[in-house]
Amino acid sequence: MVIAASMAILAGCGSGSSTGGLEAEATYVIDLTTSEVVPAPKPSTATGAAAFIVYPDRIQYQIAAQLIPGVTSVHIHTGAPGVTGASVITLFQTNVPIAPIGAFATGTMLESNLPAGITLASMKTLLASGNAYVDIHTTANTGGELRGQIK
To answer: Which CATH number goes with the domain that contains 65?
Structure first.
Protein backbone atom coordinates (compact mmCIF):
# COMPACT_ATOMS: atom_id res chain seq x y z
CA MET A 1 0.00 0.00 0.00
CA VAL A 2 1.36 3.42 -0.97
CA ILE A 3 0.42 5.09 2.31
CA ALA A 4 1.95 2.38 4.48
CA ALA A 5 5.22 2.58 2.55
CA SER A 6 5.46 6.36 2.70
CA MET A 7 4.65 6.45 6.42
CA ALA A 8 7.14 3.67 7.13
CA ILE A 9 9.90 5.69 5.50
CA LEU A 10 9.15 8.79 7.58
CA ALA A 11 8.51 6.87 10.79
CA GLY A 12 11.77 4.97 10.40
CA CYS A 13 13.67 8.24 10.42
CA GLY A 14 12.57 9.04 13.96
CA SER A 15 12.67 5.70 15.69
CA GLY A 16 15.47 6.75 18.00
CA SER A 17 18.09 6.90 15.27
CA SER A 18 20.13 10.03 14.77
CA THR A 19 19.16 12.32 11.90
CA GLY A 20 21.48 15.22 11.24
CA GLY A 21 23.05 14.76 14.66
CA LEU A 22 19.77 15.36 16.52
CA GLU A 23 17.85 12.69 18.34
CA ALA A 24 14.12 12.53 17.82
CA GLU A 25 12.18 13.36 20.98
CA ALA A 26 8.97 11.68 19.80
CA THR A 27 7.40 10.08 16.76
CA TYR A 28 3.69 9.92 15.99
CA VAL A 29 2.24 7.81 13.15
CA ILE A 30 -1.52 8.17 12.84
CA ASP A 31 -4.09 6.34 10.73
CA LEU A 32 -6.61 8.75 9.24
CA THR A 33 -10.10 7.23 8.90
CA THR A 34 -13.64 8.31 8.17
CA SER A 35 -14.88 6.66 11.37
CA GLU A 36 -13.16 9.24 13.59
CA VAL A 37 -14.65 12.28 11.83
CA VAL A 38 -17.22 14.27 13.84
CA PRO A 39 -19.82 14.79 12.55
CA ALA A 40 -19.72 11.72 10.30
CA PRO A 41 -18.73 12.55 6.71
CA LYS A 42 -20.61 11.63 3.57
CA PRO A 43 -19.77 8.04 2.55
CA SER A 44 -16.14 7.64 1.51
CA THR A 45 -13.62 4.88 0.85
CA ALA A 46 -10.71 7.25 1.53
CA THR A 47 -7.78 6.21 3.69
CA GLY A 48 -4.82 8.17 4.96
CA ALA A 49 -2.00 8.52 7.41
CA ALA A 50 0.00 11.25 9.07
CA ALA A 51 3.43 11.16 10.65
CA PHE A 52 5.22 13.65 12.88
CA ILE A 53 8.81 13.49 14.09
CA VAL A 54 9.60 15.85 16.94
CA TYR A 55 13.17 17.12 17.29
CA PRO A 56 14.53 19.69 19.76
CA ASP A 57 14.43 22.46 17.13
CA ARG A 58 11.66 21.38 14.72
CA ILE A 59 8.72 19.10 13.97
CA GLN A 60 8.72 17.33 10.61
CA TYR A 61 5.49 16.02 9.14
CA GLN A 62 4.12 14.07 6.21
CA ILE A 63 0.49 13.55 5.21
CA ALA A 64 -0.59 10.80 2.80
CA ALA A 65 -3.99 9.71 1.47
CA GLN A 66 -5.68 7.83 -1.33
CA LEU A 67 -9.17 7.39 -2.74
CA ILE A 68 -9.97 10.95 -1.65
CA PRO A 69 -10.80 13.39 -4.46
CA GLY A 70 -11.21 17.09 -3.83
CA VAL A 71 -8.70 17.60 -1.00
CA THR A 72 -8.60 21.29 -0.09
CA SER A 73 -6.76 21.43 3.25
CA VAL A 74 -5.22 19.60 6.17
CA HIS A 75 -5.13 20.99 9.70
CA ILE A 76 -4.15 20.08 13.22
CA HIS A 77 -7.12 20.76 15.50
CA THR A 78 -7.46 20.74 19.27
CA GLY A 79 -9.97 18.23 20.57
CA ALA A 80 -10.33 14.97 22.43
CA PRO A 81 -11.43 11.83 20.56
CA GLY A 82 -14.99 12.26 19.29
CA VAL A 83 -14.98 16.01 19.89
CA THR A 84 -14.60 18.72 17.26
CA GLY A 85 -12.10 21.44 17.99
CA ALA A 86 -10.56 24.60 16.65
CA SER A 87 -7.94 24.53 13.92
CA VAL A 88 -4.48 25.31 15.32
CA ILE A 89 -2.22 25.06 12.30
CA THR A 90 -2.63 24.49 8.57
CA LEU A 91 -0.40 21.76 7.15
CA PHE A 92 -1.74 21.95 3.57
CA GLN A 93 -4.10 24.25 1.68
CA THR A 94 -4.92 24.75 -1.99
CA ASN A 95 -7.42 26.67 -4.09
CA VAL A 96 -7.34 23.88 -6.69
CA PRO A 97 -8.56 20.65 -5.03
CA ILE A 98 -6.35 17.60 -5.52
CA ALA A 99 -6.81 13.81 -5.51
CA PRO A 100 -3.63 12.51 -3.87
CA ILE A 101 -2.27 9.01 -4.21
CA GLY A 102 0.24 8.72 -1.39
CA ALA A 103 2.20 11.50 0.30
CA PHE A 104 1.04 14.96 -0.71
CA ALA A 105 2.02 17.27 2.13
CA THR A 106 5.38 17.41 3.85
CA GLY A 107 6.96 20.13 5.85
CA THR A 108 8.84 21.33 8.86
CA MET A 109 7.43 23.38 11.72
CA LEU A 110 10.01 25.80 13.06
CA GLU A 111 9.74 28.50 15.67
CA SER A 112 10.04 31.01 12.80
CA ASN A 113 7.20 29.68 10.61
CA LEU A 114 4.47 28.93 13.13
CA PRO A 115 1.37 31.17 13.32
CA ALA A 116 1.39 34.08 15.77
CA GLY A 117 0.83 32.94 19.33
CA ILE A 118 2.00 29.37 18.71
CA THR A 119 5.45 28.25 19.76
CA LEU A 120 7.36 25.09 19.01
CA ALA A 121 7.08 24.18 22.70
CA SER A 122 3.29 24.61 22.64
CA MET A 123 3.04 22.43 19.50
CA LYS A 124 5.12 19.71 21.17
CA THR A 125 2.86 19.87 24.23
CA LEU A 126 -0.28 19.70 22.08
CA LEU A 127 0.95 16.71 20.08
CA ALA A 128 1.86 14.85 23.29
CA SER A 129 -1.43 15.68 25.03
CA GLY A 130 -3.69 13.28 23.12
CA ASN A 131 -6.07 16.21 22.64
CA ALA A 132 -5.20 17.03 19.04
CA TYR A 133 -6.10 15.49 15.72
CA VAL A 134 -5.28 15.72 12.02
CA ASP A 135 -8.23 16.42 9.72
CA ILE A 136 -8.25 16.26 5.90
CA HIS A 137 -10.94 18.49 4.41
CA THR A 138 -12.45 17.98 0.94
CA THR A 139 -14.97 19.65 -1.34
CA ALA A 140 -17.46 16.84 -0.54
CA ASN A 141 -16.79 16.96 3.21
CA THR A 142 -15.84 20.51 4.10
CA GLY A 143 -15.90 19.70 7.83
CA GLY A 144 -13.45 16.84 7.30
CA GLU A 145 -13.36 13.49 5.49
CA LEU A 146 -10.47 11.79 7.28
CA ARG A 147 -9.41 12.25 10.88
CA GLY A 148 -6.87 10.72 13.20
CA GLN A 149 -6.16 11.44 16.84
CA ILE A 150 -2.51 12.26 17.53
CA LYS A 151 -1.32 9.93 20.29
So the answer is: 2.60.40
Instruction: Identify which has the larger pLDDT, 1 or 144.
Output: 144
Alpha-carbon distance values, 42 to 78, 105, 116, 118 (Å): 22, 23, 34, 32
**pTM for this prediction:** 0.87
pLDDT tens readout for residues 22-33: 689 999 999 999
Main-chain phi, psi angles of 7, to 5 degrees = -70, -35
Residue 30: Cβ within 10 Å count? 20
**Would the CA dihedral through 24, 36, 32, 139 be positive or negative?**
negative
Domain that holds residue 106: 2-149
Total count of domains within the chain: 1
Structure confidence at residue 2 (pLDDT): 43
Cα→Cα distances 78→50, 86, 128, 132, Å: 16, 6, 12, 4
